[in-house]
Design a protein that fits this description.
This protein has 208 residues and is of the alpha/beta class. It contains 10 helices and 5 strands. The protein has a 5-stranded parallel beta sheet with strand order 2-3-1-4-5, with helices on both faces. The protein binds 2'-deoxycytidine-5'-monophosphate.
Amino acid sequence: MRFTVAIDGPAAAGKGTIARLVAAEFGFAHLDTGLLYRAVGRKALEIGRGVIDPVQAAKIAEALADTDINRDDLRTARVAQAASKVAVLPDVRAALLQFQRDFAQRNGGAILDGRDIGTVICPQAEVKLFVTASDQVRANRRLVELRVGAPELALETVARDLKQRDIRDASRDAAPMVAADDALVLDTTEMTIEAAVAAAITAVNKRL
Ligand code: DC
């Protein structure tokens, strides 16, 4: 069976958690596409010693391996910024496109979360969700996650980082972050994760 669920939205809105739990509920494979951009951004920073070279970034994206994606150091604020920067580059996006489309076509169903899944990667997805939340709630959620590895981190720093990424991700020319016309918008500002997951499960059940 082929069945694709596309989940888009800004950072720390809850799309990763929703994607994981919906995937577990239906036995779908799950791909966090942000990890692809994070892996490219991290490697580009390493090779460029802190400076991202666009040509090098595209080469890294073309040669991306499982070992790059499965590293445990991709969830830092520095790597997130690098990911957002390489994500602006059309050649980087083009190099990652087919992998994501193949994943979406897996037998047994697939769920992908990112920024352009419902608009560019899988415009034919059976279910599209756009998960969002207020800036403040998202910054607080991300702070809790990042404080595990960086106890001194300030809320203002996290909020500024998210804002910079949101603006870059939504205003770029190549596959900007935007809700697909046919996406169900879930604003999780005042929603429990259980309620958001239940809404996503209902949306999937309607199409199965
Ligand atoms: O989901 P995330 O925060 O891990 O994503 C990191 C960055 O990668 C994000 O700021 C923009 C980019 N990204 C993208 O452009 N398209 C995607 N489908 C997923 C992520």
